[in-house]
Amino acid sequence: MGLSSVEYRVDGVWVPYGTAFVLAGPDGHRTIGYRATDQLGNAATFELALVLDNTPPMTTISQEAGTYPSNTTFALLASDVGSGVALLEYRVDSEPWAAYADSFTLSEGRHTIGIRSSDRVGNAEAERSISVAIAGAPISHEMNWKPLVAAVFAAVLVLFGAWSSRRVPSRKGARRVLRAFALVSFPFVLAEAATGVVSLITGLLTIPR
Fold first, then answer.
1. DSSP string spanning 161-195?
2. Distance (Å, rounded) from C-alpha 185 to C-alpha 78?
3. Contact by Cβ (8 Å): 188, 164
4. Tens digit of each residue's pLDDT (9 = 90 or more) over 132-167
């Protein structure tokens, strides 16, 4: 008896099928319905769900062009409203393209980061790039307290040595006192002062470390 009609619809009313057709409109999910009816009125209806995607993905990077401190991390994100992202890639300077897996850091100096992605139906994003500069680690200007501590201790030792030297029984007065100070206290004063000078010049024995 043969067919009476063949029809289809795309998210709308049924229309007679005559020839191949092209889906138009914004990217997204579509449902194509199609049915056939024979001369006796028997009909069979089917549906096909698909995604219309004519637009490549969009890739973004967590930082803009500029200068950043060392250990700054760079993260990528790609989005596609149609078929979804299939591959996200990046490269640094003239290195080969690499699949993006996780955030990354850059060495000190100037760099160019290239990014691109493609979706599941082959739409490829044109390469985009940003230029960044990574500064060296900041120089620590933390104060070294060792020279001051050494000076205070040396002063304390001088005072204590002078006090203890004057307690030495003597019939010769100040000369005996100076001799006692030179023999007992002065070596410790000199040693403590020397540690402060060494720390000031070389950075050894720094407080705090």
1. HHHHHHTS--SSTHHHHHHHHHHHTHHHHHHHHHH
2. 74
3. no
4. 999 976 656 667 766 777 677 667 666 666 666 665
Tell me which range, 1-5, 157-161, 201-205, is most confidently predicted by mean pLDDT: 1-5
Contact 86, 120 (CB under 8 A): yes
The CATH T-level fold of domain 58-134 is Immunoglobulin-like (2.60.40)
Q: Which residue has the tokens 């393209």?
A: 97
Q: Which of 132, 145, 147 is nearest to 197 (CA)?
A: 147
User: Residue ranges of the domains in the chain?
Assistant: 3-52, 58-134, 146-202
Do the beta carbons of residue 43 and residue 57 sit within 8 Å? no
Rounded Cα distance, 208 and 144, in Å: 7
